[in-house]
Write a structure and sequence with these properties.
Blueprint lengths: L5 E5 L15 E10 L5 E10 L4 E9 L11 H7 L6 H13 L3 E6 L11 H18 L5 E7 L1 H16 L5 E7 L5 H8 L6 H13 L1 H8 L10 H7 L5 H5 L7 H9 L12 E8 L5 H13 L4 E9 L1 H7 L1 H12 L8 E6 L8 H18 L6
Parallel strand pairs: 4-5, 4-6, 6-7, 7-8, 8-9, 9-10
Antiparallel strand pairs: 1-2, 2-3, 3-5
Helix pairs in contact: 3-4, 6-7, 6-8, 13-14
């Protein structure tokens, strides 16, 4: 059985539950042969959305910011449940709606794998690429792909971009847009520990423990086994917790933990060969901008085709919304085979909503969304 082979296909048992934007698309869910970080076979799920008047030559692989270590948070389930536990997927369905309005197919893989391994580099990348292989079979073998992800979704997309030439060279990927990127896991953990997003520490420790037995053993030596939650609930439940001080005392000094944090971080790794767009807020309370600067310096020194759009406004979650029009505009240019202006471009803007072309995309999407909403209303009911 080959990697990327489709094992089962179904139409979802219930409609996609999107509250912020209409999702007008035919949907399928696929079971796909993939593998974990060690080459052991596994099975992942992926969702495919086909909009009206779809262009089968263009497929957007959208990696959701699941950022959790439990199967209840997987995108294939979250887009159908509409529950508070997986509230962040509602924001992402608004982004996906904008991509669908362009006539692109959208592929949403459960890239953390069956064990919910977050943030584990290889299994994330392998899952993304094997889902793309399955999408080629299901939609169009000659299709071109783009990748888009925010936060943990950007992490998975970045690793797929890095490993693609060796792992899946047959895939035609025009570019990857990475927002709120997790560059350095240690730096992120230090940044959020004791703050409003401290629950990410638990999700990261449990998620890496799900993939690496040695890592799990290192955590268990502290004698604690904290409960997993989806992203929003983890933030609420563990709000303000100081894990490195009060719970897992000095765990950041543990040699095994440091090894796996570094192994799965992007710094010091090979730059992607395909075009990259990075958008990030300057005052980012999760992923420090200083780590983004280091990564861009390294990738540019390696000759990467890269555009960096820095948003001078505040907040990781705000940037998820303000940066998406820029990301989709940039990806559209890649699908249309427009040349990037230079090898390494760095721009600063008061907001990424000011990115050239963003306003046109927003107007088009709002008009399209309004049209879909109005067409679904029966005025005579």
């Amino acid at each position: 059985m080959r990697l990327g082979e489709i094992l089962k296909v179904r139409q979802p048992p219930v409609p996609i539950r999107s509250y912020l934007a209409p999702i007008k698309a035919i949907s399928w869910q696929l079971l796909i042969r993939s593998e974990d970080s060690f080459g052991n076979p596994n099975v992942i799920a992926a969702t495919i959305l086909e909009p009206p008047n779809a262009d089968s030559s263009k497929i957007l692989a959208y990696q959701a910011f699941e950022n959790s270590a439990t199967g209840d948070c997987r995108p294939s389930y979250a887009i159908l449940s509409g529950s508070f536990e997986t509230f962040q997927i509602q924001a992402e369905l608004a982004f996906i709606s904008a991509a669908l309005s362009k006539g692109w197919f959208v592929l949403i893989p459960d890239y953390e794998g069956p064990q919910s391994s977050f943030p584990a580099a290889k299994i994330s990348a392998f899952s993304v690429m094997n889902a793309m292989r399955a999408a080629r079979t299901f939609i169009n073998k000659e299709a071109h792909f783009a990748m888009l992800g925010y936060s943990g979704g950007a992490f998975a997309s970045a690793w797929a971009a890095i490993l693609q030439p060796q792992y899946a060279p047959e895939l035609k990927i025009v570019g990857a847009a990475l927002g709120g990127l997790i560059v350095n896991i240690s730096a992120l953990v230090e940044n959020v520990d004791g703050g409003p997003y401290a629950g990410l520490v638990v999700n990261i420790l449990n998620g890496l423990g799900n993939e690496y037995p040695r890592f799990k053993y290192a955590i268990h030596r502290y004698g604690l086994n904290l409960r997993n939650y989806c992203l929003v609930s983890a933030a609420i439940h563990y709000f303000g917790s100081k894990f490195n001080v009060d719970v897992y005392k000095n765990f950041l000094q543990n040699g095994i933990i440091k090894y796996y944090f570094n192994k799965n971080s992007l710094l010091g790794k090979q730059a992607p060969k395909l075009p990259i767009f990075i958008y990030h807020s300057m005052l980012n309370e999760m992923s420090p901008i200083s780590e983004i600067y280091k990564l861009i310096d390294q990738w540019c020194e390696q000759g990467a085709q890269l555009e960096f759009s820095e948003d001078l406004s505040y907040n990781h979650m705000v940037e998820a919304f303000s940066g998406i029009p820029a990301a989709l505009t940039w990806l559209e240019d890649r699908f249309e085979k427009k040349k990037m202006p230079a090898k390494c471009v760095r721009e600063k803007r008061a907001s990424n909503l000011m990115y050239p072309g963003s306003s046109t995309l927003i107007k088009h999407h709002l008009k399209n969304s309004l049209s879909q909403v109005m067409s679904s209303i029966n005025l005579f009911s």
